[in-house]
Design brief:
alpha+beta; Heat Shock Protein 90; 5-stranded antiparallel sheet; 5 strands; globular; disordered C terminus
């Protein structure tokens, strides 16, 4: 058994924010504070903050439909060289990821063939090393993974050496 396989994830912080526009900034600030000192370069921390803000904004707007009484829940875990952030909403219905194209087409968007929206999951996916979207009943969760040891010069999600 390898050392990382034997290491259990450690919860750094868990919190919730009301589903109100702008609260994605609260989520990214709390996540940034929680992961300080875990070995992310400043560039990778900025990428992670962007991904967290976008995922929280999606949960607020698309998941919980800006209903303040439905919180967006955020959990930050640390496991070996990985920081894992789970962002969940309870909006019900199919997840936005079920309807979003994997890669938005700029030409189609400019031509009016695709909605001008729909860049969020694409952006998130390209900011972190891994992104997973799950739905269990009314609960949608976007899980972001950022490795602390990944080289800064390489694009996120493209480092194949683990």
């Amino acid at each position: 058994m390898t050392r990382s396989a034997a290491q259990a994830p450690r919860r750094i912080v868990a919190f919730a924010v009301p589903s109100e526009p702008g609260n994605e900034r609260l989520a990214l600030a709390q996540v940034a504070e929680a992961v300080a000192g875990l070995g992310l370069t400043s560039a990778r921390l900025e990428r992670l903050k962007t991904a967290v803000a976008e995922a929280a904004m999606n949960a607020i707007e698309h998941g919980n439909h800006n209903r303040a009484e439905l919180p967006v829940e955020v959990e930050v875990l640390h496991k070996g060289t990985e920081i894992v952030i789970a962002i969940s909403d309870s909006g019900g219905g199919p997840a936005a990821a079920d309807h979003a194209p994997a890669n938005p087409d700029l030409a189609s968007k400019l031509a009016g063939q695709q909605s001008p929206r729909g860049w969020g999951l694409f952006l998130i996916r390209n900011m972190v090393d891994a992104m997973d979207v799950t739905t269990e009943g009314a609960r949608h969760t976007v899980t972001l993974t950022m490795r602390t040891g990944a080289p800064e010069a390489e694009g996120a999600g493209h480092d194949e050496h683990v």
